[in-house]
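yo

u said u wanted the structure for the complex thing, so here. seqs first:
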Amino acid sequence: MSWSCSNYLCLSSSSSSSSSLISSHELTRVNSCNLSCEYKEQRRKDPINIVAYNGLKPPSYKLDKPQKRKNHALKKPNNISAYYSLKPPSYKFDALEPYMSKRTLEVHWGEHHRAYVDTLNKYLSKNDVLYGYTMDELLKVTYNNGNPLPEFNVAAQVWNHDFFWESMQPGGGNLPILGLMEQIEKDFGSFANFRQDFIESAMSLFGSGWVWLVLKRNEKRLAIATTTNAVTPLVWDDIPLLSLDMWEHAYYRDYKNDRVKYANVFMDHLVSWNAVLGRMARAQAFVNLGEPKIPVA
Ligand SMILES: [Fe+2]
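structre next:
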């Protein structure tokens, strides 16, 4: 006879008179099973929170027995490969709403940007020659003086997107601050001129591409540049300060085909002038713009 709970219930419900025939030993087992069933029923109604912690695992030898140290220095290390990672934005995905939706960030960063990183790492795993470069170096090497290697597009898109996420901030927009405004007014005549040029440049792009505010290393002035597909101004040695992604995946969910609205909202509510100011301060280590305009702490 099986003494599972279901068997017990079946026995007692089918023949109550037969229960008198159960021996005292069996009755103990019946009672035990009954208690078990009640416990299970209680657990079902009121589940207990079960928390498992990491235990302190003892060594596999006695504590008083000294172990011989292995000479790890003589061991040949395994092949160690470090590739590029998918860097998340510094703000929450819903932090740019209502100007850039959480869903846009989820797809743009979580699918498009992730795909660029994954593809780049697949390329690099098959090409030892390109291993070990910084991202900036990798872009210049794979651009190959205007004859891009297959790795260039995905590497540039990884760099461009990292730069784009940092070009925005929650509560962005407004006006440039400190010496950045002064430099913009010097090189564009006024902030209004700069803003208009930036948006018109965005609208002039045919197909997918990027709009940039750059510091031109040789001319020592700010300028607006556009690039198609994945190309970045780094490859011709300008120093990027700000970028706007004009690929359809950047704006379509929130603005459909209204690229003018997207570019205006970017300028009014998303652009991080703090980030641009910091980039310009670093760029001045390479480009002398005359009298220092940005106080250095
Ligand atoms: Fe993009």
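The CA atoms of residues 29 and 280 lie 82 Å apart. Residues 108, 112, 161, 245, 247, 249-250 surround fe (ii) ion (CB under 6 Å).
cya
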